Amino acid sequence: MLGYVNEPGSDVSSKLSDKPVRQTFRTTSWLHRPPVQRFMYQLMLFLAITFSSLCAYGQSITGKVFFDGNNNGAFESSNEVGFGGVTVKAYDATNTAVASTVTTLSSSLGSYTLSGLTTGTTYRVEFTLPSGYNDGAQGSGSLSSVQFIKAGSTANLGVYTTGLCDRDKTVRVVAGCAVVDGGEYSVASWNYFDDRKTTIEDETIDPHNDDIKNADVGIPMGMGARSRDKLMFFSTVSAPLAAIFPPAPDGASAIYVANYSGSGNSYVGSKLLTKLSSLSPSINVGNQSPVGSNDNVGEYGLGGVDLTDDGKTLYVVNMGNGKIVKLDVSGVTFGSIPGGGYTNLTVSEITIPTDIATCTNGRFRPSALEVYAGSLYVGGVCDASGSSTASNLRLKILKMDLTTSTWTSLLDYDLSQIEGGTLFYNKWPNVKWKDNFVGDRRGPGEIQPFVNDIAIDDYGSVIIGVSNRKVFSTDSDVEMGYMLRTFRKADGTMAMENNGVAGPLTSNAKDSPSKMPGLNAGSDANMEMISSGPGGDWFLEIARTTSHPFLHTGGIFILPGTKELVSGFADPLDGIVTAGARYIGYDDGVTTYGISLTKVKQFALTGVDAVCETASIEIGNLVWKDTNLNGRQDPDEPALEGVTVTLKDGSGTTLATATTDNNGNYIFSSGSGTSSGSRIYSIAGLSPLSSYKVTIDNAAAQTPLAGLGLTTANIASDGEDNRDSDATLVATNAEITITTKEAGANNHTYDFGFNFACPNGNCFPSIVRKN
């Protein structure tokens, strides 16, 4: 290779003139070196260029998305979980997505890596959450779903959803109770965080309150809380075994409401809300598709109950016809309920589409429901009542989007695969629904499965309670029921647990060092069952020993940020003659606590829910300089520090002011916390479902905004409002008008962009004087 070089002191520009320049035409010195040295020189040059390129484009952004159970912006590994299935993208200054991935649903749940990024470059990192979820609060471990991050750094995000209990405040568990001990009360309650026993042998009754008598309301079945005013709504059990499950005094179509607005969410009183049969149109809850000659549980009456997160709509399963009743309770207060209940509430029924509720030689029997993250979840079974094929007995979980009314099938599972044994007999198979019931505690038997409740955990996965229909018809002290754990897949559907494994989680129930009740080996470990749960083993500790697996009775409640569920059980601890509730870790399946409510080992708890304080709400987030005037938050544009932002209520009264930090951020929150200049907490006037204005008052006079005007507002053509500017000019103020959503609906998309131009006349007015 030849080199053309200038001698020292020569004029390079002279090459472009006619004047000769003193130059040297010579071979480069390394050409005279031995071939090996020349090769090594070329190799080193190649490696240097290659490694410099790798350094420039070999950086990554990593992080974790987690479910922020107490909505405080910090990841607490002991009781909060990683959240998979979130799409994460990195955008460069041209708004090009240069890296994309999805947070893991396997090991290292919720983690992600964006690779191939340029060293020293800042990117806009966007997190796209599943429908119904929103940002958690900002804090030490979480920012918003749009972050500006330099390659080589970390970006974490907490997610949350609406309608959940505030874990850090009073939570009162409310349970429906069958009449199993000759008592007269059918509704009991206790503080979720009361001291709970962890001893093995304990047959004493734990502290709780007996609230409502069965003569007044029957036995609760489905339960749904409206926590903003501490009301618990419930349907009642309709079943032939009246001695244990006495019917409601107002009939099978009755819905009751209990008031828990007393100190510590204690009970105040109860009323009949309405009889669906008395409304217009009248709702018939009678058995319209009988399995046999007798009415049995799941064929008539009302099932699961829940309310939308805004508390305006109540849903309840009509088990008589398999439809979902929709009831307008927006105007209901406890004080306004008339004697004898309402007769004028607006009511309708929703028919579940046959294409996702299809059953072979049987009928779909919906019985449980749950409102969660903007969707209505429905659980039930294909009863296989006309089938001779066991595999037609199927468990189904369906979901309806409450905004679009679109239905989706999440789970379709063959229940005939489950054949758990008992203390005295090694096989109690799940069988089709029929009119006769088989089984006693000392011999062979069958389980006709009936879904008593469903609940959604912090992973977004469904946990299912299944009861034996026999306990509602003939014997309430035989094998009662079981629980199943699923895990959410990338497409949002559910995978059934298998052999003690659910998604990335593995049950520790058999090896529980605490030796709490369940599947840990005990004195009768030699009586192992031929088979038990899905795939041969259960995930959750639903038994007392390996050979006594069917002790679940009914109801499931999950308090976010605890990694545990509360559910009704016979022998909640290892005492053999009690009934109450177990606290079970849904991460490992191990029982952690228990509460005994009665000294009788029978089907006692029928439903479980809780009244609590609603979650906080938080809004924000960014003030920045839109240097290229495109109305978009680009990663190479500067934040504006020191801007005063004001929160005003609907009447214009100032509630709080904040000053943007060096990242241009501001936060207003109703939650607890230590306020700083940019983050203001404990704002009493910031409430769900209310109107506000976020303003930058007299913007032109604020020093950081001198000479700037508002950029174009709301340019996002793809419907994404998280990366544009939202403010318009009202007189001299930059203003965003907002309406908050339900409790827990944090919104960090209220952003202000400024630039030097005057798009759409948004410049601040100024006065020019001549001297």
From TrEMBL:
Residues 61-144, 618-754 form the SD-repeat containing protein B domain. Keywords: Secreted, Signal. One of its GO terms (cellular component) is extracellular region. It is found in: Secreted. Transmembrane segments: none annotated. The keyword Signal applies. PANTHER family: CARBOXYPEPTIDASE REGULATORY REGION-CONTAINING, COLOSSIN-A. This is SdrD B-like domain. It comes from Spirosoma fluviale.
